Amino acid sequence: MRAAVIVFPGSNCDLDAAWAWEQATGGVALRIWHQSADLGGAEAVLLPGGFAHGDYLRCGALCRFSPAMRAVVAAAERGLPVLGICNGFQILCEAGLLPGALGRNHHLAFRCETVHVRVEDTGTAWTAACRQGEVLALPIAHGEGAYWSPPEELSALEARGGVVFRYCDADGHLAAGANPNGSVAHIAGIRNAAGNVVGLMPHPERAVEALLGGTAGVRILRSALMSARAGAMAHA
Amino acid sequence: MQAFVAGIEVHLKPGALDPQGQAVGAGLRSLGYVGVTDVRVGKHLRVRLEAEDEAAARAAVQRMCQELLANPVMETASFDVRPAPGP
Predict the structure, then answer these.
(1) How many CB pairs under 8 A join A and B?
(2) Which domain, by its residues, includes B78?
């Protein structure tokens, strides 16, 4: 399975994302410069972490003007699996593919550590290989990851089951101390209504090697492969 | 066409926590300004533009705020528009 990893000026997790995709899925990852409108026939899209366009104005705000991002929006509307990781999550929110916004961590610190997240929904292209309620250990590295949505929009998101990952302790409880950035309702990742677009602050691409601390990210990346196969079977 | 300068202020909505503002407020109180009860940190942008008249300039700046300069989810924007000072 071929994935496009979109590279913006200031992206810095694109090589990791491409490598992790190839390790986890056995597929091929193409790094696509943001000025290209051609996703190279990719069957999935990864928006990697980093500081696209220097985080100028707001994190992710200037990416939607890139030709590659216009192609990603069109691909997302066609149902292609799209995963936004960290800065990629911010980009998806700014592009209007996901609701809400990510604000500065409430304690103002840049947090770089391993956290636990609970899988709230396995009905997405990026959690199909996970178990409902499963606790994943994933690294975070961000200063602006506090998910926020106005109360009425948050209620709508929760009502449609739009929350995919929540920060929790190692046992899956939503303990106050387990929320690393002040995200409302412990939200670490969300989906669009169709379930093909998912954004999350933790870095699954940094959790694909046991030697480097864990392999929980493999299942997130491999989920796209599983859901593509399931989709192919459904269409056969 | 006439030249205008817009001064645009972008702030987090009242309901959105402003951790920068809180940190700055704590700093001011540490300096002894115990009367400080709230600080909000925002952005100021200055945009020079040409437009037919001031109404057209205002309308354009209003759209700029909605489409890019503020994130409508968590920010609000306010602005003023003035004729640009001569060369």
Answers:
(1) 40
(2) 2-15+42-83
